[in-house]
Amino acid sequence: MTIVSTNLKKRGRLHEHEEEQAYHLGWYPLALCSELKSGEVLGRDFLGGRVVLYRDAAGKPVVQSAFCPHLGADLSVGDVVDGQIRCAFHHWCFDTSGKCVQIPTEGKIPPGARIFTYPSAEAWGLVWAFTGEKPLFDLPRVPRAEESGLVYRTQSNGIVPYEPWLPVTNGLDFQHLRALHNIPIVEPDMIQVREYGIEYTITEPNKQRHGLITGANTFSLYRNDAGRESFTLFSGTPLRPGETLVFSVVAVRKEDPQSEEERLAAERQLDAIGALTARLLEEDDRVLTTIRFRQGVLVAADRHLAKYLKYVRDFPRASFIEAR
Fold first, then answer.
1. Are residues 96 and 184 both part of a single domain?
2. Do 74 and 184 belong to one domain?
3. Residue 42 is assigned to a structural domain of this protein
4. What CATH code is carried by the domain that includes residue 113?
5. pLDDT exceeding 90 applies to what percent of the chain?
6. What are phi and psi of 174, to 5 degrees?
7. What's the chain look like in SS3?
């Protein structure tokens, strides 16, 4: 399911004067791994700026600021040469650290001829970048499983007109699950707010839920309904204020060795999880694309949501880095 909202107005700010610093520190998905082909360059708007993605000589993803320090040409229209990015305009070449290593017309390279290299990694079928020089916390995960132990599907859900922290509120807004989605759910039996994440568990007869918020843009959930396990992950990346690129992952446990019958059963279960995920996203999007978010009058049932809103307000901020 793909949501592409055309009404891209700035929605979902916790503060009235957040325009210049609307981004949070963290890991952000920029592309599907399948989009990033060897020898090709992909451009992506990010944090109000722009980055390029490509694979180095070893096949690992590289994410760097996109504009050449010479005259500002967009490196996404350049080439990958020997695992390095080359500007199309004057053939300046930059290595994976961001340092300019070749200027065809010059013997001496100016020390300021650099672009910024973001920490990057691949996980869950996505290429991620961290908004800083060094990651302060681990990549997002799903509770109670390792990526290698799951069969999963990953997709882009398009661009939505709100900040990435806003839909993550739904992970702790249990009232909205009952009201908007008609999902009966009890209160958490455990909730922990940490420096860079929030985790909770819900236990009912024949039901278990284990939710995890990583940073301020990613929510993952483990579900167990009478022994039937499933996993989901949602994450959003701010392209600029008021525009977020959304990705989702649905997963089930991997059976190894896997028979054809087991494979087909897993595919059917993924279809069912995907259909539920699509319905929930569409129902949420109807509200979130028209919201003028403000923290108004809260009630006792909002106590878990209030914890998340404070966590987001206090979370470290980030901005686009052009060069170092």
1. no
2. no
3. yes
4. 2.102.10.10
5. 85
6. -70, -25
7. CCCCCCCCCCCCCCCCCCHHHCCECCEEEEEEHHHCCCCCCEEEEECCEEEEEEECCCCCEEEEECECCCCCCEHHHCEEECCEEECCCCCCEECCCCEEEECCCCCCCCCCCECCEECEEEECCEEEEECCCCCCCCCCCCCCCCHHHEEEEEEEEEEECCCCHHHHHHHCCHHHHHHCCCCCCCCCCEEEECCCEEEEEEEECCEEEEEEEECCCEEEEEEEECCEEEEEEEEEEEEECCEEEEEEEEEEECCCCCCHHHHHHHHHHHHHHHHHHHHHHHHHHHHHCCCCCCCCCCCHHHHHHHHHHHHHHHCCECCCCCCC
The answer to which of 70-84, 130-144, 195-209, 243-257 has the lowest mean pLDDT is: 243-257
Are residues 178 and 308 part of one domain? yes
113 located within any domain = yes
Q: Are residues 179 and 111 in the same domain?
A: no
Say if residue 4's pLDDT is above 50.
no
Give the tens place of pLDDT for each residue, 220-272: 999 999 999 999 999 999 999 999 999 999 999 987 767 888 888 889 999 99
Average pLDDT, the chain: 91
> Which domain, by its residues, includes 69?
23-130
> Do residue 152 and residue 121 come from a single domain?
no
Q: What is the pLDDT of residues 130-184, one digit of tens each?
A: 999 999 999 999 999 999 999 999 999 999 999 999 999 999 999 999 999 999 8
Amino acid in position 317? R
Structure tokens at 293: 């978010």
Cα 75 to Cα 49: distance, rounded to the nearest angstrom? 13
Q: Please tell me the distance from the alpha carbon of residue 87 to that of residue 287, in angstroms, as a whole number.
A: 43
**Residues 9-23, buried b or exposed e (16+ Cβ, 10 A)?**
eebbbbeeeeeeebb
Q: What is the mean pLDDT of residues 9-14?
A: 48
Model-level pTM?
0.92
Who has greater pLDDT, 11 or 73? 73
